[in-house]
Predict the structure.
Amino acid sequence: MLKFTLPVFFIFLNMTTSTSDAQVKPAPNLQDRIIDIHAHIGSFAGYDLSNETLLANLQHFNIALALISNIDGAQLPETRNLDESAANQITLQTVRAHPGLLRGLAWARPIDEDGSPAKLEPFLRDNHFVGVKLHPEMNHFAADDSLVDGYLSLCAKYDVPAVFHSGDAGSNADPQKIYQAAKRHPTVPVILYHMGFKGPHELAIAVVKQAMQKRDADLYLETAQADSQAVLEAIKELGAERVLFGTDATYYGKDHYAHYLPLMELLRRKLSAEEFAKVMRLNAVRLFKLEVR
């Protein structure tokens, strides 16, 4: 049977064992366990994003905490296309059902006639959501459009990060466009999910490096669907403080986290223990101000 040797927060994982049959013991030191800053609830045609699949993955792979947003806030025929209030209310209910395992990111819909930062504010103010999610592709707006400013101002008001889906050069989710928006709100941590969706990743790395050099925006990268070597290069170029572990759970279905074992093993081998801890957990704790049980 094929087995992977992982860091101490991982139980030896038998890759031939189904998620439902796995017998996973708690990690001996919770401080070493992983935080995934990019997970979803909701529905998207062709993908298994059920709560059951997400929770089974978190348990089986011993993930300490996942930050979730409701993909049904996306304005696409493959989703339920819920407005801001409805989409985020479902996130709230899900987090309340699993308070030690999940935290909420508020899904923003800037082009909605009735969408507004005011509709999202109660989720941050009253219900302790830890950030705002903006998806320029699925919600059909340019990342540097002035429509995003109210949402980034809301992040500044509640001292939480904004996470953006990032994509190719010239797209709505162009890392340069995200940078332009972030420069208008330089105190807000802005995280580029995917560091350029499925690559190439050089542009996202270069944009964060430029922001660091100019000190005109607070940009970070996230690892979902990113090439492992590119993630390692980003850490070398930018420092471990600028990269956070996330996976777009459960994009790959019932064995979602198995797809990230090569990345985690590469980082474990190539990074110092301190650097590894920052990427896999500590940066998330710092930026999202998390308390993990």
Summary: The CA atoms of residues 37 and 246 lie 5 Å apart. The longest helix spans residues 273-288.
